[in-house]
Write a structure and sequence with these properties.
The protein is of the alpha/beta class. It is built from eleven helices and 13 strands.
Length: 315
């Protein structure tokens, strides 16, 4: 891997949301593969969406090269040993194409439907910080004994062995300082997320925070945690608003309504890519220079229109 993260090649992912049928679901993944995307991902919420691991298994059995992964599994309602077993099985079934994304959990409606406490962010993050090394060690073939504040494992082991060694890439997504610093310490891929002012979160997380300065802080937190291992980490940006258009102001106004953002705020945000293909390509190159980000994921609604960007920049 290059010593300078800014010298890495680009990878592009598309986040799928669902489909009307099994065949349509698989066709979406095959189309992403044919367009040159590196990864297809799926979120993990309790609403009207497919369960991530079985849905990804169907894709794994129907494609040949595209990588797969949840972005991200919510740690709060999963046991580390069960996560490791499911991940190892999916890596085995996909011939080593899994990228295991883990997050702390954040959407209040998920917790309401599950009937479990929605702890303050610090608790949710600390729970994940305890779980993730256990998942990594189990996926690496270690036998684990552990007794901690949140998890207890006794003589735990994982079968089958994952194809990728020492383990499938671990992807951590988040936006808080503690989580991103921890991701720098442990993760193989760090997806720097932002708060989008969603109504289903509380406190500071309910405020949209999409500026370049905010993104720069978040990437700095990753670097603080990573120290000397920064060159081993792939840095990613989750693009929440993408639009190929010759009318960026109008597109920015329309897209911004969802999060109560102005067109100017959206067009200046590193979490958005809006404009002509040339403008978007230039914006991605700028984000690599500014932040070291080389892995970009956007929603399936823009999969086709953004495909020329993939062909131009991937690799």
């Amino acid at each position: 891997m290059p010593a300078d993260p800014k010298a890495r090649g680009f990878r592009f992912g598309v986040q799928l949301t669902g489909a009307d049928s099994r065949d349509a679901w698989i066709d979406k993944a095959k189309r992403a593969e044919s367009l040159g995307y590196s990864v297809v991902t799926i979120v993990d919420h309790m609403g009207d969406q497919l369960a991530p691991m079985p849905a990804l298994t169907a894709i794994a059995m129907s494609t040949t090269s595209i990588r797969i992964g949840p972005m991200v599994l919510a740690n709060d309602w999963r046991n580390p040993l069960l996560v490791a077993r499911e991940a190892a099985t999916l890596d085995w079934l996909s011939n080593g194409r899994l990228e295991l994304g883990i997050g702390a959990g954040w959407l209040t409606t998920d917790y309401e439907q599950l009937g479990i406490p929605y702890d303050r962010p610090g608790v949710r993050v600390e729970r994940m910080i305890e779980a993730l090394p256990l998942i990594r060690d189990l996926l690496s073939g270690e036998r684990v004994d552990h007794s901690g504040p949140y998890y207890r494992l006794k003589n735990a082991s994982c079968f089958p062995r994952a194809v990728q060694k020492p383990h499938p890439p671990i992807v951590v997504g988040g936006g808080s300082r503690r989580l991103l610093a921890f991701a720098g310490e442990l993760a193989d891929v760090v997806n720097v997320h932002t708060n989008l002012g969603a109504e289903s979160v509380v406190g500071d997380q309910s405020k949209a925070d999409i500026s370049t300065a905010a993104a720069r802080r978040r990437f700095d937190w990753v670097r603080e945690g990573a120290g000397n291992r920064l060159e081993q980490i792939e840095l990613g940006l989750r693009i929440f608003a993408a639009s190929v258009t010759d009318r960026p102001e109008a597109a920015g106004t329309e897209l911004g309504r969802r999060w109560q953002l102005s067109a100017g705020q959206l067009l200046e945000s590193p979490y958005a890519l809006i404009g002509s293909l040339d403008q978007i390509a230039e914006g991605i190159l700028e984000r690599r220079q500014e932040f070291g980000a080389t892995y970009f994921t956007w929603n399936e609604s823009e999969m086709e229109k953004m495909a020329p960007i993939v062909r131009r920049l991937a690799g």
